[in-house]
Amino acid sequence: MNQPANLNTIKSTISKYQIPVVKKNLDQDIANVPNEIEDQSANLSSAKNSIPKYQIPVDITNLDQDIANVPNEIQSQSILIDKSVEYPSDPDLFRETILSTPLIRALTEIGPCQPGIDGKHVIFPKNKNGQSFLLKWYNKITKSNFPCKRNWLVYSPRSNKMFCFPCFLFRTISQHHYQWSDPSKGVSNFRKGHEKIVKHEQSNEHKIAEREYLILRTRIKNDSTVVHNIILAGKKEKEHNRNVLKRLIDLSLFLAKNGLPFRGHRENFSYKTPNQGLFIELVKLVSKYDAVLAKHLAESNKNETYLSHMIQNDIIKSMAHETVQLILNEIKLAKYFTIIIDSTIDINKNDQFSLSLRFVDKEGKIREHFICFEELPGASASNYFNILNKCISII
Ligand SMILES: [Zn+2]
Known about the structure:
By secondary structure, this protein is mainly alpha-helical. It has helices spanning about 5-15, 25-30, 35-40, 45-50, 65-70, 70-75, 100-110, 165-170, 195-200, 205-255, 280-285, 290-300, 310-335, 380-395, and strands at about 140, 145-150, 155, 160-165, 335-345, 350-360, 365-375.
Protein backbone atom coordinates (compact mmCIF):
# COMPACT_ATOMS: atom_id res chain seq x y z
CA MET A 1 0.00 0.00 0.00
CA ASN A 2 1.19 3.49 -0.75
CA GLN A 3 2.11 4.83 2.69
CA PRO A 4 2.49 8.57 1.78
CA ALA A 5 -0.96 8.52 0.18
CA ASN A 6 -2.44 7.03 3.36
CA LEU A 7 -0.72 9.61 5.49
CA ASN A 8 -2.23 12.35 3.35
CA THR A 9 -5.68 10.79 3.76
CA ILE A 10 -5.36 10.61 7.52
CA LYS A 11 -3.89 14.11 7.69
CA SER A 12 -6.89 15.51 5.85
CA THR A 13 -9.26 13.49 8.06
CA ILE A 14 -7.52 14.54 11.25
CA SER A 15 -7.32 18.21 10.30
CA LYS A 16 -11.07 18.46 10.91
CA TYR A 17 -10.54 17.52 14.53
CA GLN A 18 -7.53 19.65 15.33
CA ILE A 19 -7.60 21.60 18.58
CA PRO A 20 -7.21 25.37 18.08
CA VAL A 21 -4.59 25.79 20.83
CA VAL A 22 -1.15 27.43 20.56
CA LYS A 23 1.04 24.48 21.45
CA LYS A 24 3.80 26.39 23.25
CA ASN A 25 1.24 27.62 25.78
CA LEU A 26 -0.55 24.32 26.09
CA ASP A 27 1.11 23.19 29.34
CA GLN A 28 0.49 26.55 30.93
CA ASP A 29 -3.13 26.61 29.71
CA ILE A 30 -3.76 23.16 31.12
CA ALA A 31 -2.27 24.20 34.46
CA ASN A 32 -4.76 27.10 34.50
CA VAL A 33 -7.79 24.91 33.91
CA PRO A 34 -9.98 25.18 37.00
CA ASN A 35 -10.01 22.12 39.23
CA GLU A 36 -13.70 21.53 38.70
CA ILE A 37 -13.01 20.46 35.10
CA GLU A 38 -10.66 17.78 36.30
CA ASP A 39 -13.24 16.51 38.77
CA GLN A 40 -16.02 15.03 36.68
CA SER A 41 -18.37 14.94 39.65
CA ALA A 42 -18.19 18.76 39.95
CA ASN A 43 -20.84 21.13 38.75
CA LEU A 44 -20.94 20.52 35.00
CA SER A 45 -22.41 23.87 34.06
CA SER A 46 -19.56 25.83 35.64
CA ALA A 47 -17.08 23.47 34.03
CA LYS A 48 -18.69 24.02 30.62
CA ASN A 49 -18.06 27.78 30.90
CA SER A 50 -14.34 27.15 31.32
CA ILE A 51 -14.05 24.66 28.53
CA PRO A 52 -14.74 26.56 25.25
CA LYS A 53 -11.04 27.40 24.62
CA TYR A 54 -10.30 23.69 24.45
CA GLN A 55 -13.30 22.59 22.45
CA ILE A 56 -12.65 20.64 19.29
CA PRO A 57 -14.49 21.86 16.17
CA VAL A 58 -15.95 18.47 15.28
CA ASP A 59 -19.04 17.55 13.38
CA ILE A 60 -19.92 14.74 15.80
CA THR A 61 -22.59 13.29 13.52
CA ASN A 62 -19.90 12.01 11.14
CA LEU A 63 -17.26 11.14 13.71
CA ASP A 64 -17.86 7.39 13.80
CA GLN A 65 -18.04 7.19 10.03
CA ASP A 66 -14.87 9.26 9.57
CA ILE A 67 -12.92 7.15 12.07
CA ALA A 68 -14.16 4.00 10.36
CA ASN A 69 -12.74 5.37 7.09
CA VAL A 70 -9.24 5.86 8.51
CA PRO A 71 -7.07 2.91 7.38
CA ASN A 72 -6.43 0.45 10.24
CA GLU A 73 -2.64 0.56 10.09
CA ILE A 74 -2.64 4.35 10.26
CA GLN A 75 -5.03 4.26 13.23
CA SER A 76 -2.77 1.91 15.15
CA GLN A 77 0.26 4.12 14.34
CA SER A 78 -1.43 7.02 16.06
CA ILE A 79 -2.23 5.06 19.20
CA LEU A 80 0.17 4.55 22.04
CA ILE A 81 -0.19 0.87 22.85
CA ASP A 82 2.99 -0.79 23.96
CA LYS A 83 2.72 -4.17 22.23
CA SER A 84 6.12 -5.24 23.52
CA VAL A 85 4.73 -5.86 27.01
CA GLU A 86 3.32 -9.28 27.82
CA TYR A 87 -0.24 -8.09 28.41
CA PRO A 88 -0.71 -4.87 26.36
CA SER A 89 -4.42 -4.55 27.25
CA ASP A 90 -3.89 -4.71 31.03
CA PRO A 91 -6.15 -1.87 32.33
CA ASP A 92 -3.46 -0.88 34.84
CA LEU A 93 -1.42 0.45 31.88
CA PHE A 94 -4.19 2.96 31.12
CA ARG A 95 -4.63 4.61 34.51
CA GLU A 96 -3.69 8.01 33.15
CA THR A 97 -5.00 7.57 29.60
CA ILE A 98 -8.17 8.98 28.12
CA LEU A 99 -9.77 6.24 26.07
CA SER A 100 -10.26 7.78 22.63
CA THR A 101 -12.38 5.99 20.01
CA PRO A 102 -9.31 4.73 18.07
CA LEU A 103 -7.74 3.50 21.33
CA ILE A 104 -10.95 1.63 22.26
CA ARG A 105 -10.91 0.07 18.80
CA ALA A 106 -7.27 -0.95 19.12
CA LEU A 107 -7.82 -2.46 22.59
CA THR A 108 -10.85 -4.36 21.29
CA GLU A 109 -8.67 -5.78 18.51
CA ILE A 110 -6.14 -6.98 21.11
CA GLY A 111 -8.87 -8.40 23.37
CA PRO A 112 -9.15 -8.69 27.16
CA CYS A 113 -6.16 -9.39 29.37
CA GLN A 114 -6.80 -12.96 30.54
CA PRO A 115 -3.54 -14.60 31.63
CA GLY A 116 -3.81 -18.39 31.88
CA ILE A 117 -6.97 -18.74 29.77
CA ASP A 118 -4.91 -20.26 26.92
CA GLY A 119 -3.73 -23.11 29.19
CA LYS A 120 -0.37 -21.48 30.00
CA HIS A 121 0.69 -21.99 33.60
CA VAL A 122 0.24 -18.74 35.49
CA ILE A 123 0.64 -18.11 39.20
CA PHE A 124 -1.92 -15.68 40.63
CA PRO A 125 -0.30 -14.04 43.67
CA LYS A 126 -2.15 -13.76 46.99
CA ASN A 127 -3.37 -10.37 48.16
CA LYS A 128 -2.84 -8.99 51.66
CA ASN A 129 -5.78 -11.13 52.89
CA GLY A 130 -4.13 -14.28 51.59
CA GLN A 131 -6.62 -14.74 48.72
CA SER A 132 -5.89 -14.94 44.99
CA PHE A 133 -7.68 -14.86 41.66
CA LEU A 134 -8.85 -18.31 40.53
CA LEU A 135 -8.44 -19.57 36.94
CA LYS A 136 -11.85 -21.27 37.02
CA TRP A 137 -13.55 -17.85 37.26
CA TYR A 138 -12.96 -17.40 33.52
CA ASN A 139 -15.48 -20.22 32.95
CA LYS A 140 -19.20 -20.28 33.46
CA ILE A 141 -22.19 -22.52 32.79
CA THR A 142 -25.06 -20.93 30.86
CA LYS A 143 -28.71 -21.33 31.82
CA SER A 144 -28.99 -23.94 29.05
CA ASN A 145 -26.17 -25.83 30.78
CA PHE A 146 -23.46 -25.02 28.23
CA PRO A 147 -19.93 -24.37 29.49
CA CYS A 148 -18.46 -21.15 28.07
CA LYS A 149 -15.79 -18.53 28.73
CA ARG A 150 -16.32 -15.16 30.36
CA ASN A 151 -14.88 -13.02 27.57
CA TRP A 152 -15.33 -9.91 29.65
CA LEU A 153 -13.44 -10.89 32.81
CA VAL A 154 -10.00 -9.34 33.09
CA TYR A 155 -7.22 -10.21 35.49
CA SER A 156 -4.55 -7.53 35.72
CA PRO A 157 -1.13 -9.04 36.56
CA ARG A 158 0.29 -5.56 37.11
CA SER A 159 -2.18 -4.65 39.87
CA ASN A 160 -3.39 -8.14 40.98
CA LYS A 161 -6.98 -7.03 40.50
CA MET A 162 -10.06 -7.99 38.49
CA PHE A 163 -11.71 -5.72 35.93
CA CYS A 164 -14.48 -5.88 33.36
CA PHE A 165 -13.19 -5.34 29.81
CA PRO A 166 -16.40 -3.93 28.23
CA CYS A 167 -17.09 -1.68 31.26
CA PHE A 168 -13.48 -0.49 31.18
CA LEU A 169 -13.80 0.40 27.47
CA PHE A 170 -17.33 1.78 27.47
CA ARG A 171 -17.72 3.18 30.95
CA THR A 172 -20.28 5.95 31.33
CA ILE A 173 -19.85 8.87 33.71
CA SER A 174 -22.04 7.17 36.34
CA GLN A 175 -19.69 4.18 36.16
CA HIS A 176 -16.53 6.22 36.24
CA HIS A 177 -15.63 5.32 39.81
CA TYR A 178 -17.07 1.89 39.55
CA GLN A 179 -14.43 -0.60 40.63
CA TRP A 180 -14.92 -2.94 37.66
CA SER A 181 -14.37 -0.22 35.07
CA ASP A 182 -11.93 2.30 36.53
CA PRO A 183 -8.29 1.21 35.89
CA SER A 184 -7.17 3.06 39.01
CA LYS A 185 -9.55 1.01 41.14
CA GLY A 186 -10.39 -2.61 40.25
CA VAL A 187 -11.63 -5.49 42.39
CA SER A 188 -8.76 -6.43 44.69
CA ASN A 189 -10.69 -8.35 47.31
CA PHE A 190 -11.05 -11.88 45.97
CA ARG A 191 -13.18 -13.07 48.89
CA LYS A 192 -16.48 -14.32 47.44
CA GLY A 193 -14.92 -13.49 44.05
CA HIS A 194 -17.28 -15.72 42.09
CA GLU A 195 -20.37 -14.15 43.64
CA LYS A 196 -19.03 -10.68 42.82
CA ILE A 197 -18.39 -11.72 39.20
CA VAL A 198 -21.89 -13.17 38.78
CA LYS A 199 -23.46 -10.09 40.35
CA HIS A 200 -21.53 -7.80 37.98
CA GLU A 201 -22.35 -9.72 34.82
CA GLN A 202 -26.05 -9.56 35.70
CA SER A 203 -26.02 -5.78 36.22
CA ASN A 204 -27.67 -3.51 33.67
CA GLU A 205 -24.63 -1.26 33.29
CA HIS A 206 -22.50 -4.27 32.41
CA LYS A 207 -25.04 -5.57 29.90
CA ILE A 208 -25.12 -2.19 28.11
CA ALA A 209 -21.30 -2.03 27.96
CA GLU A 210 -21.06 -5.64 26.80
CA ARG A 211 -23.52 -4.93 23.98
CA GLU A 212 -21.39 -1.96 22.83
CA TYR A 213 -18.30 -4.16 22.99
CA LEU A 214 -19.89 -6.96 20.95
CA ILE A 215 -21.12 -4.47 18.32
CA LEU A 216 -17.60 -3.02 17.95
CA ARG A 217 -16.03 -6.49 17.77
CA THR A 218 -18.46 -7.50 15.01
CA ARG A 219 -17.73 -4.27 13.15
CA ILE A 220 -13.96 -4.83 13.33
CA LYS A 221 -14.46 -8.41 12.12
CA ASN A 222 -16.57 -7.19 9.17
CA ASP A 223 -13.97 -4.52 8.31
CA SER A 224 -11.24 -7.15 8.27
CA THR A 225 -13.44 -9.37 6.08
CA VAL A 226 -13.75 -6.55 3.55
CA VAL A 227 -9.98 -5.91 3.62
CA HIS A 228 -9.35 -9.67 3.32
CA ASN A 229 -11.62 -9.85 0.25
CA ILE A 230 -9.82 -6.91 -1.37
CA ILE A 231 -6.44 -8.60 -0.78
CA LEU A 232 -7.81 -11.90 -2.10
CA ALA A 233 -9.14 -10.21 -5.25
CA GLY A 234 -5.71 -8.59 -5.81
CA LYS A 235 -3.97 -11.97 -5.42
CA LYS A 236 -6.37 -13.61 -7.89
CA GLU A 237 -5.75 -10.86 -10.44
CA LYS A 238 -1.98 -11.25 -10.02
CA GLU A 239 -2.26 -15.02 -10.46
CA HIS A 240 -4.39 -14.59 -13.61
CA ASN A 241 -1.90 -12.11 -15.12
CA ARG A 242 0.97 -14.51 -14.39
CA ASN A 243 -0.90 -17.33 -16.12
CA VAL A 244 -1.50 -15.15 -19.18
CA LEU A 245 2.14 -14.13 -19.29
CA LYS A 246 3.30 -17.78 -19.04
CA ARG A 247 1.28 -18.62 -22.15
CA LEU A 248 2.61 -15.58 -24.06
CA ILE A 249 6.20 -16.54 -23.14
CA ASP A 250 5.61 -20.14 -24.31
CA LEU A 251 4.22 -18.90 -27.63
CA SER A 252 7.23 -16.58 -28.01
CA LEU A 253 9.60 -19.46 -27.27
CA PHE A 254 7.91 -21.57 -29.96
CA LEU A 255 8.36 -18.80 -32.57
CA ALA A 256 11.94 -18.07 -31.49
CA LYS A 257 13.00 -21.74 -31.50
CA ASN A 258 11.66 -22.17 -35.00
CA GLY A 259 13.13 -18.91 -36.27
CA LEU A 260 9.68 -17.58 -37.23
CA PRO A 261 8.79 -13.88 -37.45
CA PHE A 262 6.49 -12.56 -34.74
CA ARG A 263 4.74 -9.71 -36.45
CA GLY A 264 2.49 -9.13 -39.40
CA HIS A 265 1.66 -5.95 -41.33
CA ARG A 266 -1.43 -5.14 -39.25
CA GLU A 267 -1.36 -6.43 -35.69
CA ASN A 268 -3.95 -4.13 -34.19
CA PHE A 269 -7.23 -5.85 -33.36
CA SER A 270 -9.21 -2.96 -34.84
CA TYR A 271 -7.89 -3.86 -38.34
CA LYS A 272 -9.94 -6.66 -39.83
CA THR A 273 -7.01 -8.24 -41.63
CA PRO A 274 -7.02 -11.97 -42.34
CA ASN A 275 -3.53 -12.33 -40.87
CA GLN A 276 -2.32 -10.28 -37.91
CA GLY A 277 1.09 -11.92 -37.74
CA LEU A 278 2.15 -15.23 -36.22
CA PHE A 279 2.26 -14.08 -32.60
CA ILE A 280 -1.30 -12.68 -32.54
CA GLU A 281 -2.64 -15.47 -34.73
CA LEU A 282 -1.16 -18.07 -32.36
CA VAL A 283 -2.71 -16.28 -29.36
CA LYS A 284 -6.10 -16.37 -31.11
CA LEU A 285 -5.69 -20.04 -32.00
CA VAL A 286 -4.71 -21.12 -28.47
CA SER A 287 -7.50 -19.03 -26.93
CA LYS A 288 -10.03 -21.25 -28.75
CA TYR A 289 -9.01 -24.13 -26.51
CA ASP A 290 -7.62 -22.35 -23.44
CA ALA A 291 -9.98 -20.69 -20.94
CA VAL A 292 -7.31 -18.40 -19.45
CA LEU A 293 -6.36 -16.80 -22.77
CA ALA A 294 -9.99 -16.71 -23.93
CA LYS A 295 -11.01 -14.83 -20.75
CA HIS A 296 -8.03 -12.51 -21.16
CA LEU A 297 -8.93 -11.60 -24.77
CA ALA A 298 -12.60 -11.15 -23.92
CA GLU A 299 -12.28 -9.15 -20.68
CA SER A 300 -8.95 -7.32 -20.60
CA ASN A 301 -8.76 -3.59 -20.96
CA LYS A 302 -7.50 -2.71 -24.46
CA ASN A 303 -4.39 -1.11 -22.92
CA GLU A 304 -3.59 -4.20 -20.85
CA THR A 305 -3.67 -7.03 -23.38
CA TYR A 306 0.13 -7.65 -23.26
CA LEU A 307 -0.01 -8.26 -27.01
CA SER A 308 1.55 -5.05 -28.37
CA HIS A 309 4.79 -5.10 -30.34
CA MET A 310 6.51 -3.45 -27.35
CA ILE A 311 5.53 -6.31 -25.04
CA GLN A 312 6.62 -8.81 -27.71
CA ASN A 313 10.01 -7.09 -27.89
CA ASP A 314 10.24 -7.10 -24.08
CA ILE A 315 9.57 -10.83 -23.98
CA ILE A 316 12.16 -11.48 -26.71
CA LYS A 317 14.76 -9.33 -24.91
CA SER A 318 14.09 -11.08 -21.60
CA MET A 319 14.38 -14.52 -23.22
CA ALA A 320 17.63 -13.47 -24.95
CA HIS A 321 19.05 -12.18 -21.67
CA GLU A 322 18.19 -15.42 -19.84
CA THR A 323 19.66 -17.55 -22.67
CA VAL A 324 22.94 -15.59 -22.74
CA GLN A 325 23.21 -15.82 -18.95
CA LEU A 326 22.83 -19.62 -19.13
CA ILE A 327 25.57 -19.83 -21.77
CA LEU A 328 27.85 -17.57 -19.73
CA ASN A 329 27.31 -19.68 -16.60
CA GLU A 330 28.42 -22.77 -18.55
CA ILE A 331 31.46 -20.94 -19.96
CA LYS A 332 32.49 -19.95 -16.42
CA LEU A 333 32.64 -23.66 -15.56
CA ALA A 334 34.62 -24.52 -18.72
CA LYS A 335 38.40 -24.41 -18.64
CA TYR A 336 38.92 -22.77 -22.04
CA PHE A 337 36.79 -20.84 -24.49
CA THR A 338 37.23 -19.04 -27.81
CA ILE A 339 35.75 -15.84 -29.12
CA ILE A 340 34.69 -16.00 -32.77
CA ILE A 341 33.94 -12.73 -34.54
CA ASP A 342 32.98 -12.21 -38.15
CA SER A 343 30.95 -9.87 -40.31
CA THR A 344 28.49 -10.30 -43.11
CA ILE A 345 26.44 -8.00 -45.34
CA ASP A 346 22.72 -8.06 -44.62
CA ILE A 347 19.79 -7.53 -47.03
CA ASN A 348 20.11 -3.72 -46.60
CA LYS A 349 23.80 -3.92 -47.48
CA ASN A 350 24.83 -3.05 -43.88
CA ASP A 351 27.87 -4.80 -42.48
CA GLN A 352 26.78 -6.86 -39.45
CA PHE A 353 29.28 -7.87 -36.83
CA SER A 354 28.57 -11.26 -35.20
CA LEU A 355 29.94 -12.65 -31.95
CA SER A 356 29.99 -16.36 -31.12
CA LEU A 357 31.56 -18.26 -28.22
CA ARG A 358 33.04 -21.73 -28.50
CA PHE A 359 34.00 -23.87 -25.53
CA VAL A 360 34.24 -27.43 -24.21
CA ASP A 361 31.53 -28.11 -21.61
CA LYS A 362 31.98 -30.16 -18.43
CA GLU A 363 30.94 -33.33 -20.26
CA GLY A 364 33.73 -32.82 -22.80
CA LYS A 365 31.47 -31.80 -25.67
CA ILE A 366 32.36 -28.94 -28.01
CA ARG A 367 29.73 -26.20 -27.85
CA GLU A 368 29.38 -23.14 -30.05
CA HIS A 369 26.81 -20.39 -29.38
CA PHE A 370 25.89 -17.29 -31.30
CA ILE A 371 25.66 -14.35 -28.85
CA CYS A 372 24.80 -11.17 -30.76
CA PHE A 373 24.74 -9.05 -33.91
CA GLU A 374 25.91 -5.42 -34.05
CA GLU A 375 26.11 -3.01 -36.99
CA LEU A 376 29.73 -2.50 -38.05
CA PRO A 377 30.60 1.11 -38.98
CA GLY A 378 33.73 0.12 -40.96
CA ALA A 379 36.00 -2.82 -41.75
CA SER A 380 39.13 -1.65 -39.90
CA ALA A 381 40.68 -3.58 -37.00
CA SER A 382 39.78 -0.78 -34.57
CA ASN A 383 36.11 -1.01 -35.71
CA TYR A 384 36.10 -4.72 -34.90
CA PHE A 385 37.88 -4.12 -31.61
CA ASN A 386 35.49 -1.34 -30.48
CA ILE A 387 32.37 -3.35 -31.34
CA LEU A 388 33.76 -6.45 -29.63
CA ASN A 389 34.48 -4.38 -26.51
CA LYS A 390 30.93 -3.03 -26.57
CA CYS A 391 29.39 -6.53 -26.92
CA ILE A 392 31.49 -7.98 -24.12
CA SER A 393 30.63 -5.12 -21.78
CA ILE A 394 26.91 -5.66 -22.45
CA ILE A 395 26.95 -9.38 -21.73
ZN1 LIG B 1 -18.95 -5.07 33.08
